Amino acid sequence: MYDALYDALYARQSIEKKDSISVESQLEYCRYETHGEACIEYTDRGFSGKDTNRPGFEKMMNDIRAGKIKRVIVYKLDRISRSILDFANMMEIFQKYHVEFVSSTEKFDTSTPIGRAMLNICIVFAQLERETIQKRVTDAYYARCKRGFYMGGRIPYGYRLTNTVIDNIRTSMYEEVPEESEQLKLIYSMYADTDNSLGDIVRYLNEHQIKNLRGANWNTARISEMLRNPVYVQADIDVYQFFQSQGANIYNPASDFTGYNACYLYKGTVSTSRKQSDLSDKEIVLAPHKGFIPSKTWLACRIRCLNNRQSTKTCKPKNSWLVGKVKCGKCGYALTIRKAKTKWGRYFVCSQSGSRGSNCTGAGCTVYADVLEEYMLGAIKDRLSEFQKLSCLSETGEEQKHMTKKIRLTQIEEEIEDLLSKVSGASSVLMKYIDEKVSELDADRKVLQEEIVTANVTDAEGRLKQITNHVKMWETLSFEDRQAVVDTLIKVIRIADGTIEITWNI
Question: Is residue 318 part of a domain?
Fold first, then answer.
């Protein structure tokens, strides 16, 4: 124990603003309480009061435990803590080491029950104020995001900042840098061609001395990040439906996705994942700037990136490129790969067969992976041959009509969902109206779906030619590229009692 005990003066300022009291001013108030006695000053600049991870505060607490401090003096209660739990723990330590607490502007007598109660009440309101400010800042941030305002951060490769006005408010937006955007178009076109891997693209860029923003060489992580970023895409209804299928929250209506503007991707107010691969609860907002990557190219690359990440998680060398597509025809659960010490090596087995509480007896036969892969490759070749004489959409006018139909279909589905949400508690008159309106919309929906399916089949010729070429070079394809072909062509494969049922995407 030290012979001399000191007053501890503590001051904190999170952000220097005109309307906030400085650390120096806080200490001046605190010195008045010492009446000229010896004191030690502890300060934290640029630290929030939401927790106690502050160097000045931690040093003061260490000196308290060492027996150097008799009183802690602060300008105001919220300078030392804005958390009820942290404050309670702190006061417990103060009492243990017989340290008094003084607020120079809020006169508390911690030696009495009333004084301690008033102190606890004040800390409750301090925490409430902190949380209210935090929510207000967050709400303001996302309100600006949804209006398309530039929110700072690293400027993406391919763009520079330019001034603009949105809703009579000055802000900034991205402007295309031609020489960089041409490189990006090349990167996207290379990756859309499944013959090229991320490594192939990196090697090409580095060999041709094409530098990134920092003047450094490229790497696969940087390329992958760019391929997944919607800031480049000409966002049309296909992009809208992709984000919708991935669980993203889309601020703009489907009719705004005309193929002109690009998109901003934000984390969202409730999202816990920072990864672009997980789009659930992410916020999608149309950006004010023009995209320069066609939606078909961007989606091809984005879906390929998504498939790569999924296969990375699940696929090991012993796995098959059919994993994820093969289902048990009896229970509907996936067939998983197992390795055996036989000449066959690998075989599929129902994931539910033999498990507790399951009545599934499995596929009914041993499904060897090599045999099934050979069979499916033959089936894929036969399926592709059926589409060799199909013609594709060539007229721009027809493509525009096709896009308009997709937008209208999305709107109809949203209208039906909105009407059905009003069924609960509806009167008989309202129920009749809802029923009639839903029937009318459903009829329109079926007509549009048939027209879109027909157009999609016709439009698929170009993609099918590309896939056909990949199938011809099957032995040279990578594992991920084989999976990409299967994902494009096949929805599901069901096996039961020796029979194989294939549901095609085409």
Answer: no
C-beta of residue 102 within 8 angstroms of C-beta of residue 108: yes
Look up tokens 């209006």; give the residue.
Answer: 147
pTM: 0.47
Give tens-digit pLDDT for 446-459. Answer: 777 777 666 655 55
Q: How many CA atoms lie within 13 A of 334 on its CB side?
A: 9
Task: Name the residue among 291, 286, 460 with its Cα closest to residue 389.
Answer: 460
For residues 1 and 383, give the distance between their C-alpha atoms in angstroms, rounded to a whole number. 87
Quote the domain boundaries for residue 430.
396-459
Quick one: 29 and 12 in the same domain? yes
375, 362 contact by CB (below 8 A): no
> Can you say whether residue 248 is alpha, beta or left, with left for phi > 0 and alpha for psi between -120 and 50 degrees?
beta
* Model confidence pLDDT, tens digit, residues 1-24: 455 689 999 999 876 555 568 899
Residue 171 falls inside a structural domain: yes
Burial pattern 306-315, b for ≥16 Cβ within 10 A else e, equals bbbbebeeeb
User: What's the structural domain count of the chain?
Assistant: 4
* Encoded tokens for 314: 């699940």
DSSP state of 120: H
What is the mean predicted confidence (pLDDT) over 388-392? 45
Backbone dihedral angles phi then psi of residue 73, each to the nearest 5 degrees: -115, 130
> If residue 490 lies in a helix (H) or strand (E), which one and from where to where?
strand 490-496
CA dist 38 and 444 (Å) reads 84
